[in-house]
């Protein structure tokens, strides 16, 4: 009678023989009637939503794009009304607006980086809490 394939509780790969260590991750054999859950993964609902920071990141990037659009309009208007005489003034304005637009875009990227760092920190705290709980459970059962 062939044994039924089961999924490894550690890595979720199919294990042809659950009575032997997992060939993919080396997890220990599964004892009949043992029900272990995968506690190492972090669910989406465990992460805090950073809604406000996401809006701020979008706002920075939209403002940067609007500045570039305004710059194009300013250059076109200056050349049409003043011609070549406005060239040096437009170069100075273009430099200023491009630097400011770059800073705004960078602010949006930094905000996204803060969101990612917050998620990483939250995941680390959740996983450390789970490891701590598992260690306490093992200590209690070993006494």
Largest sheet: 2 strands, antiparallel
Strand content: under 5%
Q: Report helical residue fraction.
A: 55-70%
Calculate Rg over CA atoms.
29 Å
Bulk shape: elongated
Q: What does the model show?
A:
The protein has 143 residues and is an all-alpha fold. It has two domains: 1-30, no CATH class; 46-142. It is built from two helices and two strands. A two-stranded antiparallel ribbon has the order 1-2. A hairpin with a 6-residue loop joins strand 1 and strand 2. Helix 1 runs antiparallel to helix 2 (87-142). The two termini are 40 Å apart. The mean pLDDT is 82.
How would you summarize what this structure contains?
The protein is mainly alpha-helical.
SSE layout and pairings?
Layout: E1 6-7, E2 14-15, H1 51-82, H2 87-142
Antiparallel strand pairs: 1-2
Helix pairs in contact: 1-2
């Amino acid at each position: 009678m062939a044994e039924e394939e089961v999924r490894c509780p550690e890595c979720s790969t199919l294990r042809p023989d659950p009575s032997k260590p997992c060939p993919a991750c080396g997890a220990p054999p599964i004892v009949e009637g043992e029900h272990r859950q995968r506690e190492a993964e972090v669910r989406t609902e465990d992460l805090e939503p950073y809604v406000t920071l996401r809006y701020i990141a979008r706002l920075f990037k939209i403002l940067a794009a609007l500045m570039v659009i305004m710059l194009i309009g300013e250059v076109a208007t200056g050349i049409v009304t003043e011609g070549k005489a406005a060239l040096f003034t437009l170069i100075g304005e273009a430099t200023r607006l491009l630097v400011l637009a770059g800073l705004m875009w960078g602010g949006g990227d930094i905000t996204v980086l803060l969101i990612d760092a917050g998620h990483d920190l939250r995941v680390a705290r959740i996983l450390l809490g789970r490891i701590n709980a598992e260690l306490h459970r093992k200590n209690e059962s070993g006494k």
